[in-house]
Amino acid sequence: MGDPMKNGPDCLRGQVVIVTGASRGIGEAIAYRFAQAGAKVVVSARTVNDGDHALAGGIENVVRTIRQEGGEAIAVRADIALPEHRAHLIDAARAAFGRIDVLVNNAAVTYFERVSAFREKHFKLMFCVQVEAPFDLAQQVLPEMMERQSGAILNISSHAAIHPAKDAGGRGGTVYGMCKAALERFTSGLASEVYADGIRVNVISPGLVATPGVLHHNLITEETPASGVTPVEHMAEACLRLVQGDAALLTGRVTYAADIMQEFQLTPANLPPLQGV
Asked: Taking the C-alpha atoms of 67, 73, 75 and 76 in order, what is their torsion angle to the nearest 10 degrees?
């Protein structure tokens, strides 16, 4: 049964949340939803202002919207492929708000190239952003979470982690799937390591969401059924549920937005309009 008191307006009141890859799309939606829940949000990505990137969006825009809605947030530019930028992100969050309660590893970089022609620099960058960076950021926030015996780490995965049928063909998503599969195994392993420390660690996949990145890669076509597209509000709502509550009861999940929405009978909150959607 769902708990109507969960995902309430103050369920993250006073908690400090870092969201990577939050200049647009799913990260932007998570930042808005967590701010609505009372969190102080550290909005991070490479893109600071709209127009800095080929895709619409920027972290300054996200922070401005959160503040206009009555929330509290700061923007921290970070290219999480770089160790020094990851360290700066953690330092900036602590300098601004004193602590870190929740880490959402959402940032991703994706190249759709078949294995036979996949470029080494793209391979290394994808693993760095989607596997090495979440691992490193988790290492940096874990000591304070373990000391407090509380905290949450949420990793954003993809259905691409699921093994494809041998005759499925494919358009070059093998390396992307490898990255997400590694992220999921990292999540379940870390969850078991910190279970006794009261820290919840989960990973969630959204399905297809009509974000600027998904549209840029033409992942939603005229043949895509409406049931195959996940509203971004559902993803944000499911993410909020996974970072709160009893850590002993809600950790180690390798799950999907639709399943969390159904299991906890969640109703998605209205979010501000997303950039470029």
From this structure: 180
Kindly list the catalytic residues: 176
- How far apart, in whole angstroms, are the C-alpha atoms of residue 31 and residue 64? 12
C-alpha to C-alpha distances, 161 to 64, 125, 174, 180, 200, nearest whole angstrom: 34, 18, 9, 5, 21
Q: How far apart are CA 110 and CA 147, in angstroms?
A: 36
pTM summary value: 0.91
Q: List, in order, residues 6 or more apart from 219 with CB less than 8 Å away.
A: 208
- Kindly report the CATH class assigned to 16-263: alpha beta
pLDDT tens-digit series, residues 119-175: 999 999 999 999 999 999 999 999 999 999 999 999 999 999 999 888 777 678 999
Pair of tokens at residue 188: 């379940």
Question: What pLDDT is stored for residue 215 in this prediction?
Answer: 47
Note the pLDDT of residue 71: 97
CB 23 within 8 A of CB 59: yes
d(CA 202, CA 216): 28
- What the block records as the tokens of 137 is 């950021």
Which two tokens mark 110? 């994706």
Lowest mean pLDDT among 47-61, 75-89, 202-216: 202-216
How many Cα atoms sit within 13 Å of 218 on the Cβ side? Answer: 4
